[in-house]
Structures are given as C-alpha cells and as structure tokens.
TrEMBL record:
EC class: transferase
Gene3D superfamilies (alphabetical): P-loop containing nucleotide triphosphate hydrolases
NCBIfam families, sorted: cmk (TIGR00017)
Entry EC no(s): 2.7.4.25
Protein known as: Cytidylate kinase
Alphabetical UniProt keywords: ATP-binding, Cytoplasm, Kinase, Nucleotide-binding, Transferase
UniProt-annotated location(s): Cytoplasm
Binding positions for ATP per the UniProt entry: G10, Y11, S12, S13, T14, G15, K16, S17, S18
Amino acid sequence: MKKPVIAIDGYSSTGKSSISKIIAEKLGIVHLDTGALYRGITWFALQNCVDENGKINLEELFKSFHLIELEFKKEEDELILYLNKINVSKEIRAAEVSDNVSLIAKQKEVRDFLLEAQRSIARNGGVIMDGRDIGTVVLPDADFKFFLTASIEERTKRRYNELLSMGFEADETQVRENLMERDRIDSEREISPLRQAEDAIVIDNTNLTKSQTIESILQHLIKIN
Ligand code: C5P
C-alpha cells in the first residue's frame, strides 16, 4: 500500500517541524522541513551575495543557484541539511537568517528553484512536509492537509526558548517582531502566500502541548482513513 503524503502548513513557531518529525517517526515515513531550504538559500546569500552595505544582492543570488547543492542526510533519525557539503543546521536558525528569509522566500526565482526538489521527494508517497504553501501549491493533491496556528504570545515564548536551548542569545521583543514581520510578508506575498488550503484541517494549538497536537493529528488521520 502506498504510504500517505501529509502537508502541514501554518504560522511561524506553531511547532510544525518538531511535530512533523515525531509523526514521521511514528508512521515510518520521511519528514521534510521546507523552511530549512529557504533558510539555507538565505544563509548562502548572506555568505556569498551581499553588496558593500551588507544587503543581499538578489541578481547575484539568482545567478548563483547552480553553485548551490542542497542535500538532506539522515543522521540519528534526523534529516540534517547540508549545503555544499556543509552541515548548516545550526547556522540557518541564526537571527540574521530569520531576519532575511521571508524577503528571499518571496522571490519567484527562489520558489521556482525549490519547487521541483520538494515535489520529487513526495513522488513515491510516504512523506510529511511542513511549510507555508505545501497544501496549496507544492502538494495540492496531498492525502492529508493540516494548518497549524497559535497566539503570537505563545509562539514568541516557544521560539525564544528554542533559541536559548540552541545556545543563541535572544531578546523576546525581537523574537516577537520577527515572527510578526515574517508572517506578514509570508501572507502578503504575491507568489504562494501563506494561507490555509480549503480542504485543510485547522488546529489552534495555543493551549495544547506538543503531544496533544500530535495526538489530535493522529486522530484525524485515523478518522479519515
Ligand atoms: O518554517 P520556518 O519558520 O523555518 O521558515 C522560514 C521562512 O521560510 C518562512 O518565514 C517563509 O518565509 C519561508 N518558507 C516559505 N515556504 C515554505 C517554507 C518556508 O516561504 N514552504
């Protein structure tokens, strides 16, 4: 039997990736955190394509796509992002990347560059993919679609604690502003904006723990099956 294709979209820091990772383990399927791909491109741009004022030069970035090799490697049950053979899992979570990623992700050239790579991973089924446009654009025929949301206060707290646990310095006000600004740019962009697919199940997990959110998703998967 073909394993399911599951799309998880939603606002920043609603727990999409960590929840998807656990569901993937439970179902024996692959998890792809598509945000990591956009963060990887942004990290590359900050390393290689900035002008004398430190701003990303988009033309330069678009000309450099052929120099970017993205690869996920499974290490201890986790998919680790390698960019040009470098493990960039930690670097892509830095504030500088978070501050620039939505501006990079709204570029048509960047979205086109990543679209086929994402689709090809789902071709044989057995994948849970999380992002902003998975249920609407990347995998519109996914077997299951979920849309996660939570209050900005709760999301700020989660992201702030995550950054501290990764060893980054963090400021709660800045974290909150970054989340709001990213959500605004992601929702208002012309191409593949962040929005709920019409056939997605919405889960507000403001008052749910991670385990409760996972349980709720698994219950839906059983019910629909
Ligand atoms: O999921 P994460 O918060 O790491 O994603 C970082 C950014 O990547 C988002 O704010 C958004 O700008 C972009 N993104 C996107 N489409 C996706 C996944 C992420 O535009 N499918």
